[in-house]
Amino acid sequence: MRRLITMTLGLLATPVLAQTSPAPAPQPAPAPAPAVAPTPAPALPRVKIDTTAGSFTVEVETVKAPVTAANFLHYVDQKKLDGITFYRTCKVADKFGFVQFGTNGDPKRTLPPIKHEPTTITGLKHLNGTLSTARLEPGSARGDFTISVGDQPSFDADPSKPDDALKTNLGYAAFGRVVDGMDVVLKIFDAPIDPNATVRGSFKGEVPAAPVRVLSARRLPKG
Fold it and tell me: What is the rounded distance in angstroms from the CA atom of residue 98 to the CA atom of residue 126?
């Protein structure tokens, strides 16, 4: 009888021993994965434009507007902007309007037309200091460019606008911005206008009395 009681107590003790066994040692948490640094955005090319009124620098948006930006850089790299003039100043109000410069149809300087890149595609806006391409119908832009003085939302593409022969609801193709020397652009903008002069019969009241000339347009070294 005593032997039976002893065995029974031993069987009853077994579950207790199982419940009081030490828990397995906790495993260390896996080390967090090393943080991946974001890929830096590529440096955009910059072009310094020296004029008879001073110098200014533009940053060319080759990522968001690759076609229009490449076109401008072709003119720069082939030195086709050296010697051209700012031949138009459209002054809507004080510090509001644009200046226009470029090859002005000179066949020796003008490259083939390019595909239109509306701002609805590029995401760019015509803000103060924005460079854009002058055009007639979409796809006719070549070597003439404008610089906005003041924000110009009416130059952005807006499909809600009524269509017309020149499809102005597609806006103009912005491709860069002035990053240094905007005071020089304002100096060009504020220069006197010849009220009677025209450019091949156009732009009366918007032609500078003494057009500013571009001496050189050159890419700046990266970095």
Answer: 11
Give 87's contacts (C-beta < 8 A, 6+ positions apart).
Answer: 100, 101, 104, 199, 203, 207, 208, 211
- 147, 185 in Cβ contact below 8 A? yes
Contact 217, 81 (CB under 8 A): yes
What are 158's two structure tokens? 């807006």
3-state secondary structure 21-73: CCCCCCCCCCCCCCCCCCCCCCCCCEEEEEECCEEEEEEECCCCCHHHHHHHH
Summarize pLDDT for 145-168 with one digit per residue, the tens: 999 999 999 999 999 999 898 999
Beta carbons of 46 and 63 less than 8 angstroms apart: no
- Asked if 87 contacts 193 with a C-beta cutoff of 8 angstroms, the reply is no
What is the C-alpha to C-alpha distance for residues 167 and 172, in angstroms, rounded to an integer? 10
Whether the CA torsion 82, 175, 137, 167 is positive or negative: it is negative
Express each pLDDT in 58-112 by its tens digit: 999 999 999 999 999 999 999 999 999 999 999 999 999 999 999 999 999 999 9
